Amino acid sequence: MLPQAHHIAEAFEGLVYTCSPHSRIEFMNSEMAEWIGRNVIGEKISESVPELTFTCPEEAIEEARQGKTVKWDALNPANDRWYRVVNAPHENPDGSVSVLVMVRDITEQKSTEERVRLLNNFLDHVVESLAHPFLIIDPDDYSIVMANSAAKKAGAASGFCAEMGDDDFNNDNLPCPLDEINRTGKPVIKSFERELAGNSKYLEIHAHPFFDKDGNLVKIVEYILDLTEKITLEQALRDSETRTRSVAQSSVDAIISSNDEDVVIFWNDGARKMFGYREEEILGKPVTTIIPERYRKYHSEGVKRFLETGATSLTGRTMELQGLRKNGQEFPLELSLSTWRARGRVYFSGIIRDITDRKEAEQALAQRTAEVQERKEELEALIQMVAHDLKSPVIAIAGLVRSLKKKIDSNPQDENVGRIAEQILTSSQTMEEFLTDLLDAMAVEKTEPQLEQFNLEEVIEEVVSEHRPSIDEKRITVQTEFFASDSTVTADKRRIKQVFDNLVSNAWRYMGDVLEPTICIKIRDDGLFVTAMVCDNGIGIPQEYQKRVFDQFFRVSNSSQQKGTGLGLSIVKKIVEIHGGAIHCESELGKGAAFIMKLPRNPLQ
């Protein structure tokens, strides 16, 4: 090898050696000697250096001997590294041809090329996956160098773009703002409207120029955003905000909003009229501006607690508070509070109603109610006094008339005198009963029941015994059915006896003419209650009157033959309810009536 070639071989960054026509190593550079670790000149590669067999396969050597230079990349299985191999013919002085072999390690280059390939592949996939058109344009002729599927679908399939102008709306090609890029040398963003398939589309072009080292425009990267949905939503949002603000401003109630800094951010006209602050005066001011001084600390603590924990007892309900007008006047208000979150912040909205008029009306009503109650109590006192004062003389009159009637009966002279005496006696008895019932009705409402424990069956037997003369006179059969294992109750014994006295009395009084008149009294156990029923097979109560039989002074029209005060059943109902029980009536006209009451065994439980 010539000295000059020898220097070149030594300077080469890699392995250099020559292979004789007999496949023996004729020359090798120092890097190869260092790589092998010994001098192998004169030896066959396949025998002495088998790890270099991949650099000079027989077919490559044969082509080199035929005067061809062969290049290829080979993977060395011995160390798993890539090498760039060149086999070139080298003519010897004797005319024979050796093979010059140059081997360079390109493993890092291969790795870089693979990374570049993968990166390009990744970028291709990213660009292709974009929902909006993406393309690269040659500025010399507006031709499209590269376009993703979205761009082809939007018009890039023609292969060319068009300069943006007045006729872009009907141009099938995608527009490109090349003139402005050439004029400014900067990226361009342009918005335009285009008619597609009968619908207006709002598009935005982003065009980015790329220049070479000399400042010449070589490529334009362009992508197009469809802003139709965004603009439509923004317009809908503006319309919604306009409607919301219009509704809020037209409200007679105050509508106020604040943020998590407790600062007013919305103030409608109703708030201006209510508090006296104009919108420009109050926006940005603390909410405590409209809260009386004594409540501000509690308000601030409540806002802080809500922001820290999210817990509040004020949202979702209406509450009555005090407000503070600009002139310093306090007034009662009704507040409905709500909260919402947006962009990581908390906001509050309140609908406020001035309830000054309502409070004044309530106060006036309360005062009027108190006055009516006072008059009612005065009237009741008057009635009680009159009834009490009348009862004594009425009883005296009745007694005198009875004495007079006895004398008349023992010495009859004029039958009219006896009849008149009888009428006076009946009237005085009616008056006495009325006054007694009236005083009883008032006493039931005014006095607390005197509770004691007693057996209900014994009370019923006492009542039946007291009414026995009248019952026997009408030939009425009384049946008692006591199904309760324990008929003991805790109640006002005198009042409960009064209930059964009234019910039994009504049963025989309104029996009417029936073939087998019967009164049935039943008691059954009902857990914590005792259920009692007094029923008869008398004249009954019409359906339309059954809900009114417990009203004061109400008497059933078909009982006109029996005179009563109309207070008995109302007294019965009050007594039962005072004891925590209930009573109702069941009846069928011509088949009798049943009064069913449910009494607690112990009202204190």
Descriptive account of the structure:
Residues 240-310 form the PAS domain. It catalyses: ATP + protein L-histidine = ADP + protein N-phospho-L-histidine. There is one protein chain. The chain is an alpha+beta fold. The protein folds into 5 domains: 3-111, PAS domain (Beta-Lactamase, 2-Layer Sandwich); 130-231, PAS domain (Beta-Lactamase); 251-354, Beta-Lactamase; 359-443, Orthogonal Bundle (Helix Hairpins); 450-600, Histidine kinase-like ATPase, C-terminal domain (Heat Shock Protein 90). Helix content is 41%, strand content 28%. Strands 2-1-5-4-3 form a 5-stranded antiparallel β-sheet. Helix 12 runs antiparallel to helix 13, helix 14 (456-466) crosses helix 16 (493-509) and helix 16 (493-509) packs antiparallel against helix 17 (568-578). The longest helix has 55 residues, at 356-410. The chain is elongated, with a radius of gyration of 57 Å. The N and C termini lie far apart (125 Å). The relative contact order is 0.04. Residues 166-170 have low confidence and may be disordered.
